[in-house]
Amino acid sequence: MTAAGADVRAFSLISAAGRIAIGLGMLAAPEPAMRALGFSQVSPATAAVARIAGIRDLVLGGVTLAALDDRDRLRTATIGNATADAGDTLAFAMAIRAEEGTAGIRGVATALPATLAGIWVAWRLS
User: Fold this and answer.
1) Angle at 75 between CA 89 and CA 118, to 5 degrees
2) Which of 40, 49, 67, 77 is deepest in the core (most CB within 10 A)?
3) Contact 122, 82 (CB under 8 A)
């Protein structure tokens, strides 16, 4: 494996593990997870949405782990992850305008770099 291939694999592995950890946190403890993200109000409805997002991250992380040894599948998984991260970036940017500025800024600060890193990895896998 080349150094570039090792970088892509390492990023993919770290990204997948991070998604799984975040997913488990959102699923098991949505209220503290939402507060850690900076949301000021956590209701039963927002806790349910947090759990949905947690399951999404568990699935994305699992699919990425399962694809580590297949370049084409890993590229597809990475594009899916980057697309989800781009959606998160948009949603967090909208939260800034909805008086959830802390959550929005924290979210954009993490989701945007994840989106760009995912695009870079997908490009490297092309």
Assistant:
1) 25
2) 77
3) yes
Give the model confidence (pLDDT) of 51-84 as tens digits: 999 999 999 999 999 999 999 999 999 999 999 9
- Give the CA dihedral 24, 25, 31, 35, nearest 10 degrees: -150
Task: Give the separation between CA 88 and CA 53, rounded to whole angstroms.
Answer: 10
- This prediction has a pTM of 0.90
Rounded-to-integer distance, Cα 18 and Cα 27, Å = 14
Place of tokens 């991260």: 85
Q: CA quadruple 98, 103, 106, 111: dihedral positive or negative?
A: negative
